[in-house]
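**Backbone shape codes:**
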Amino acid sequence: MSDCHSLGDCDDSRIERLYEYLDGALSHADLVEIKDHLEDCPECAQEHDLECLIRSVVKRSCTEVAPAKLKSNILDRISQIKTVDH
């Protein structure tokens, strides 16, 4: 049974563990604990789903490639700054 029963009962440390869960940064035992908690706690499950959605949108946004001309301009500017500094 869940140890939280209403919105806000899960503290920041549990939410932090949720992020670690999504990052795959927990031990097997901790992964099982968080997974079990998500099954029993609708508020944390909602937080999990929202975080998954946010990560998905960010990941899609990061697939865009900058134009080659922009990259060239940035590298040229870096070279100019390095030349002036030395």
In short: Residues 1-8 have pLDDT under 50 and may be disordered.
